[in-house]
Specification:
Chains A, B: Belongs to the PlsX family. Chains A, B: Pathway: Lipid metabolism; phospholipid metabolism. Chains A, B: It is an enzyme of class 2 (transferase). Two copies of one chain form a homodimer. By secondary structure, the first copy, chain A, is of the alpha/beta class. Chain A folds into two domains: 1-120 and 286-329, 3-Layer(aba) Sandwich (Isopropylmalate Dehydrogenase), CATH 3.40.718; 128-276, Isopropylmalate Dehydrogenase. Helices cover 45% and strands 16% of the residues of chain A. Chain A has helices at residues 15-24, 38-48, 70-76, 81-90, 103-114, 149-166, 188-198, 225-250, 254-272, 300-315, 318-329, and strands spanning 2-6, 31-36, 55-59, 96-99, 124-130, 135-139, 173-177, 203-208, 220-222, 281-285, 291-294. In chain A, helix 1 packs across helix 10 (300-315). Chain A is globular. The two termini of chain A are 37 Å apart.
Chain lengths: 335, 335
């Protein structure tokens, strides 16, 4: 199998991307196809290793930046690393595509170039959400700021299929984010989605209050992309601001400083639980091929992990599972 | 001035309520009217103090519980402590009402019994949000799960008036919660609200990403009640789960334990920044009299602070400021 990587996307590209590719080779069976400016990629590879037989380069001269307008960029920059990456998938010259570039363009490109899975109305971004118990998946993390009830149901199906097959969580519990736990709370979107999910094949837990999300109350956290994006960014903001307050406390006086040194190992452990690089990237679910969106500020480790999960995403047949399940239920009925 | 308190509302009522009232007397000029079961209140008072000349009791035999349906409860339980509290405000026998009881019933009662401020379409709950810099106000914290653009504008006006007059923050910065900072991001509700606020008299900052909220990027955080409730509860959930992870780290081995003891003072300081009891309660803005919703699990200190802020809410003429501003702009135009 071949995994295509956008060598030019992300704040630390191409260095961190190339580094991640090289270190992934020890942990995957697939070969890598790096897409981007050939000379630059070659020199980044040669800086790091002599043996890159399992890495091919496909040249692409243009770059889609974060400032580019998504749909326009994917349509006009036909020779960008992202557009060429999709082309490889389309022609079956690669099975998976990983990019840390412009999220909107990646979403637009996936829908336009790969197409949606039959029965799926809106693809979504699924983000791994670290909890006290382990990890949940949050879907949609920001692709769809406005949703219909059938979309939330689809998110539940897609999130479950990914968790079950890639992260080996059996019969994952699915909950909808709401402002109360009782049935009937919240707004119309939530209420209709609740009814659909309750009568579906999902292992449906019901409503979930945001307070319980960090404790891992459910495995699949379903919400529209607006709420999902707020949840992800707020979690990051609260955690980081707390850590910086804690740092102030820990460095206040010499006695605290000494204690802080003693605690350093423990705190490192604590910080690592919040480390997004462990999870590498967010799968884009609902399109016909596996696409992974890596974090814009991905370092080599994040890219390595994104590639690892990308390989599993393809090997475990997640897309086939989604297609089976969505067509068994006939989501079109919920329109 | 007289401040009416619902003696029967909240998880720790009536003990914590009575305790909070007694300790508030040292910090306020007003007198207190405790509303609820007279004999019980009397015995709670006598347990704690001999001198309660500044505290009156108004008897109310019924109690609205958290399980009661809001509108129904306020209509049928005419002799509940909450209903009687509103009656005192209506008859000008008290100026402010504080309750830690059923939030929905308090909202329904305020709208039905006191009425909305002229020009305000939807009253909202404004919650103090502790930040790294101090405190912001989040509005709406959960009263309106579905909003129109004019509502978000009104929330901005009401939040600003409260912050400026009660918390002495001059010309508070107002931001809308969105999933990107650029104009045009997000959904239709946000975009229309953005346009209204941009052309208003508010000190409008623009879009705010959830990540920046805990750092105090704006003073007034505007969002619909669904998103607001998610923000409040998630902040609590993330902070509490992090604290419990931290605790695990700190008690792992004997050396860490010793360090933890040394750090205890600092950690206490750290925890107190997250302590909602400092802020006491959330003002209900948009109705014709000052109403404060105290946290359901309020202790004496939280009640004392809710009373203190309730007094300022009335003394500083917040309601008059809101009425002036909303009618100057003519929010009805935005319908």
């Amino acid at each position: 199998m071949k995994i295509a990587i956008d060598a030019m996307g992300g704040d630390k590209a191409p260095g961190a991307i190339v580094e991640g590719c090289i270190s992934s080779l020890k942990e995957i069976d697939s070969n890598i196809v790096l897409v981007g400016k050939e000379q630059i990629i070659k020199s980044e590879l040669e800086k790091r290793t002599k043996d890159y037989r399992r890495i091919d380069i496909v040249n692409a001269d243009e770059i889609i930046s974060n400032e580019d307008k998504p749909v326009q960029a994917i349509r006009r920059k036909r020779n960008s690393s992202m557009a060429v990456g999709f082309k490889l998938l389309k022609k079956n010259e690669a099975e998976v595509f990983v990019s840390a570039g412009n999220t909107g363009a990646l979403l637009a490109g996936a829908s336009l170039r790969l197409g949606r899975i039959k029965g799926i109305d809106r693809p979504a971004i699924a983000s791994i959400y670290p909890t006290k118990k382990g990890s949940s998946i949050l879907i949609d993390a920001g692709a769809n700021a406005e949703c219909k009830p059938r979309n939330l149901y689809e998110f539940g199906v897609m999130g479950s299929a990914y968790l079950e097959n890639v992260l080996n969580i059996r019969n994952p519990k699915v909950g909808i984010v709401n402002i109360g736990t009782e049935e009937g709370k919240g707004n119309k979107l939530i209420n209709k989605s609740y009814d659909i999910m309750k009568s579906s094949n999902l292992n449906f837990y019901g409503n979930v209050e945001a307070r319980d999300i960090p404790y891992g109350i459910v495995d699949v956290i379903v919400c529209d992309g607006f709420v999902g994006n707020v949840i992800l960014k707020l979690t990051e903001g609260v955690a980081m601001s707390l850590m910086s307050m804690l740092k102030e406390v820990l460095t206040k006086d010499i006695f605290s400083k000494l204690s802080a040194i003693a605690l350093k190992g423990g705190l490192k452990d604590f910080k690592s639980r919040l480390d997004y690089t462990e999870y590498g990237g967010a799968p884009l679910l609902g399109v016909k091929k596996p696409v992974i969106k890596a974090h814009g500020s991905s370092n080599g480790k994040a890219i390595k992990n994104a590639i690892k999960y990308g390989e599993l995403f393809s090997q475990r047949g997640v897309i086939e599972r989604i297609e089976e399940e969505i067509n068994r239920m006939g989501a079109d009925e919920f329109e």
